[in-house]
User: Fold Serpin domain-containing protein from Spodoptera littoralis.
Amino acid sequence: MGKLILILGLVTMAVASPFDFDFGFGRNYVETPLGKSIDTATLKLLKEAYNSAEDKNVVSSPLSLMILLSLFNSGAGPQTKEEISRYLGGADFESAYRDLSVRFADLNPNALTVANKVYVASKYNLKESFAFAVQGYRSEVDKLDFSNKEAAAAAINQWADEKTKGNIKDPVKPSMLSEDVAAALFNVIYFKGHWHVPFKAEDTQDKDFHVSKDQVVKKPTMRLTQSLFYAESPELGARLVELPYKETGFRMVIVLPNEIDGLPSVLEKAAQKGLLTDVFKLQPAGSDVELELPKFEVKTKLDFNELLPKLGVSKLFEEPALGVVKDQSVVVSKAFQEAFIKVDEEGATAGAFTGMLIVPVSLDYHPPRPIPFKVDHPFLYLILYEDNILFAGTYVSQVSI
Assistant:
């Protein structure tokens, strides 16, 4: 039986710099069934990744995993199909993820790159039905001699380096490969966005960050006072604020627990119901938001051999898949992800939208007080395109990478 490697989302995301924002422009988001299923599957995975991580700083693109699971499903065995269907949230997910892959492939590549790659061992061919599915996902297909482990790893890593603009290097080690690898499936999601609302570098100062109730460290913290979308969620025990990007349809949402040690509780609740319902409750705050947000940079390696069984998806490592490689049954031997995020105030592109609200003047008029939003303790963040979560992560304390 041959081996199949899923390298699920050699993922990187760079978050760059901003501009001014108006409340209506480009913000016609609609909550869709696919967006909701991505939401719940994302938060379930993030919770497990957080619980498994030692330093609790986590960044991941569960969507990258979901795209490859959907692709693999077209050639998987019946028990594997059942588990993947349950995790991805319905029977019609294959066409939904295929269409999403095509849609993302047609977006501005300077902002978002979504790419799939299938390598087939030199001595094998893809089964016709799987090759047809691969085409539907806009996947590239190449032959590769996995018995030459060094050359095979170098070829894969060159593709990853190119697609992630040099931000992820050498994710595949030669020791991960062997001559009995029949095929390998890859996905990359790379995002580089420019804020809609400017952070000025001169306003960044070292501020207290409460790692826990007992530990406080200093972090370079960006400052911004601006009209932003804002929401409070008593059910989650958290407040939310949205930072839009210049690139249409993209936004970051910060989910700040009310309590310093509240992140595990928020994650647990989010894993049960997702966060999209709360995200769609974001509204103009009615006054400026005084935002303080630490700069941070995180790199995460996730082992899906460990995490997927916790999500109820384990048969792909055990049950022979007859519909992937022609005349050969395969099982997944290795599934992993490497992800990266950088959040700061840098950027070379600038633009502005300025608006004024005119109100009658009276002696009794006082402008509303700004809403303080100090991100000074562990928090959760999302990067979305419309209602689809591209990246999700937690930040507890800076680590060197």
Notes: The domain at 2-23+51-194+297-343 is CATH 3.30.497.10 (Antithrombin; Chain I, domain 2). Residues 120 and 183 are 4 Å apart (CA to CA). The longest helix spans residues 33-52.
